[in-house]
Amino acid sequence: MSPRPTDVEVGTELPEQTSRVTRADLVRYAGASGDLNVIHWNERVARAVGLPGVIAHGMLTAGLAVRAVTAWAGDPGAVVDYSVRFSRPVVVPDDDLGAELTVRGRVAALLEDGRVRVDLTVTSGGDKVLSLARAVVALG
């Protein structure tokens, strides 16, 4: 059941969400998105350009992060605005576990017309990977 505007206040926390991203996920995302950049699948090239290893696509990371908001809202269409800045790459090791992405959210502002602003904290391996991650959600 999605939250109603009367049930939400500044400081309301969203349920924490954890996702895993594996190299196989990167291959599938590359095929679906058309983003075939070598840094998303080739360790040698990623390191040669100064990265710590193969990294997840930024849009994949942003998409996984907003799922915490859509799950809380109960409707992906309730997200009327979403923005992030990329602060660190999500390094995806070549193993069966991949990288873990943890998303925490809290209502930061009550806006007009039953909308709220949700601020997200998104980490991987203990590092904050997205900055200024914010979503505006129309509730009710």
TrEMBL record:
Domain MaoC-like: start-end pairs: 16-107
Alphabetical list of CDD domains matching this protein: SAV4209_like (cd03453)
InterPro entries: HotDog_dom_sf, MaoC-like_dom
One family name in Pfam for this protein: MaoC_dehydratas
Family: Belongs to the enoyl-CoA hydratase/isomerase family.
PANTHER family referenced in this protein's UniProt entry, alphabetically: (3R)-HYDROXYACYL-ACP DEHYDRATASE SUBUNIT HADB, 3-HYDROXYACYL-THIOESTER DEHYDRATASE HTDX-RELATED
Protein name: Dehydratase
Biological source species: Modestobacter caceresii
